[in-house]
């Protein structure tokens, strides 16, 4: 499966609910093929910012560009073809099989009631193979474990062939084996990714750059070494930490006191 990575540009993006400003003046450029990690404590604005990219939260101000085009000035189907999203939770109380859910990723590329083409079927089968879902293809989605469901949702996003992949806490509810497996796989694709992550060490291992949010504002942006500093961790997460290196990956390793 081949996906052409796209560019993502956020310019002074803000989002408010009533009088409450959840995201304030965020500007960020994500290069094609780059993986950016969004970090911050609960309520920092990570999910609210991501929703402005996949057209759930219309920005109160600012612009979101994918491949140079404003996603909020395009059709919903255009956005679905160019931005894929894997969210923390998805309703599972529907009688769809694994293959059905993966195939949903092709809907933005087709007309209403149009059946799967040979190209669609090839992409679906490739995604099932990549995510090791072939043995599960006939299982009902609601019968799967949390880790299996996340793999299905990643496969669905991949068959969209998006320019940008948005991951909102993709490792939530996963054990460490499946956390590593999922992030290694996403990293290996070479596509453009912006991901909200809670685990600082996983973010340091897999992301090219990190964006640290606090109270809806950007506190720091840069490499893991530049962002995961003792001062930033104390100010934003209110923890004292010792920083060292992962002996296997040489990435920054955060050890809270």
Automatic annotation (TrEMBL):
Keywords: ATP-binding, Nucleotide-binding. PROSITE patterns: ABC_TRANSPORTER_1 (PS00211), ABC_TRANSPORTER_2 (PS50893). The keyword Membrane does not apply. GO terms for molecular function: ATP binding. It comes from the Bacteria. Residues 8-240 form the ABC transporter domain. Belongs to the ABC transporter superfamily. This is ABC transporter ATP-binding protein. It comes from Devosia yakushimensis.
